Amino acid sequence: MNIINGRPLTETLLEEVLAMLPKLDPEIGETELKRVRSKLESTIGIQVSVGGVVREDAHEPWLFDEKGKIDWQYWDSYKQLLVSQGWSPTVVRVLDEDTDNIITECGNPRLEEGWSIRGLVMGDVQSGKTASYSGVIAKAADAGYKVIVLLTGMIEDLRKQSQERLDFGFVGRDSRDVLGKNTNRQAIGAGAFRSKSANVLTSVDSDFLTANAQVLGGIPLKNINEPILFVIKKNISPLKNLNDWLTSQMKISGLSQHHVPLLVIDDEADNASVNVKKDNEDPAKINAGIRDLLKKFSHSSYVAYTATPFANIFINPDREDDLFPSNFIYSLNTPSNYIGASSIFLDDGKHHGQLHDIDDAEEIIPHAHKKDLVLDDIPESLKEAVRVFLISCAIRDIRQEELRHRSMLVNVSRFTDVQRRVSEKVGNFLWTLQEEIRQYLSSISWKKHPQLVLLQTVFLDEYSESGVTWEQ
User: Fold this and answer.
1) Among 39, 43, 219, 453, which is most buried by a count of CB atoms within 10 Å?
2) Is 446 left (phi over 0), alpha (psi -120 to 50) or beta?
3) Cα end-to-end span (Å), the chain
4) Which residues have C-beta within 8 Å of that of residue 88, sequence separation ≥ 6?
5) Are strands 52-55 and 328-331 parallel, antiparallel or unpaired?
6) What are the C-alpha distances in Å from 36 to residues 8, 24, 43, 79, 85?
7) 13 by DSSP, 3-state: which?
8) pTM for the whole thing?
9) d(Cα 322, Cα 288) in Å, to the nearest integer?
10) What is the pLDDT of residues 264-284, one digit of tens each?
11) pLDDT tens digit string along 331-385?
12) CA-CA distance, 347 to 344, in Å (whole number)?
């Protein structure tokens, strides 16, 4: 990445890089050079363009005038983290521009006069929204936002995942160490590229509890130097805990509102956040909790992120205290390597040929089934999908790809009970496959199978210093 130094990746430049690597590391072999070539082609070769905005006429973008006055420590460290992970310079540059464009649509945290901003950012499923709002959070912290709330999904597993990502990409420390008052807080992720870290009052282990605020030592919000992050799931209890704590802070300070800038990022904003009740009725409790949170601050920006914005844009725009994106809507573009629903399901989609109708599941899991469906087995097509998934994982291991999460989603029912039974059947099938493979490996002659001898060699190279033996 340092040799390329942001230059467009051409075949000539690629050959130049591959020719220099053996000079830097004489022990590098052809296999490793092939892996480097593949990695560079799959990352730096990605193209993406800057998104577009529709804004309220009255709002004047402010960031361009202020940019030179801001110390971009949180953003720069996040950017360095992405580059160190092999992100294409082109993709990082576009992320930089997109996040600038979103931040400038939010309120200017340096203004004394109060403001309330409502915006929406839309992008395709799994197309980089998490990277976008992580960048927005980092830039907001640099620009002067003091309280940052990330609203996640409605289940704890999703909240924990979001917390881990922001610990790594923004806080720079493990939130469990922070809340546990561990004085030996080792830098992680973006924290390795800067000298300071953000405050955090939620952790991988816990949503917001009033006791968490003891980490601040009773310091009022207005006196906090570094921004405070809350990662909260969209449930009534944690939202109430946060609002109650903010109210108690106002009473202590004798204030009717907090006079520090607030940024609320609402991930998957079409889920639970939208008021589903009529205008003449009290709003739904989660929607009411979000509104209450925003009202507690004289300077607040609410930015909804979603791939399906239909529910959000049909919020009644005449209700000024609701969450209609009245100030701006920003559209993120997808990268060139993105494969979405339209490219598969539309007749003229680039990957439409990969679409196959599955017709063997109806007898086992009928389309119109109930939650008490008895499941004796899983369809053969699902078994085949599991086999293909395992083989693809093995191929990626043989290619020596860096270790990342690999997942296969099985979603055949809207009922949790049925999904649980399917999970048990898939687990049993996986166990059977493992036993068959184990028995096969123990029965064969190694000399007759050179591929397995090669596999053993690779294994010993990878694990010889870990204490794990081939037999194990």
Assistant:
1) 43
2) alpha
3) 37
4) 43, 44, 45, 46
5) antiparallel
6) 17, 14, 11, 22, 13
7) helix
8) 0.77
9) 9
10) 999 999 888 888 877 767 778
11) 998 877 778 888 889 999 888 998 988 889 999 999 999 999 999 999 999 999 9
12) 8
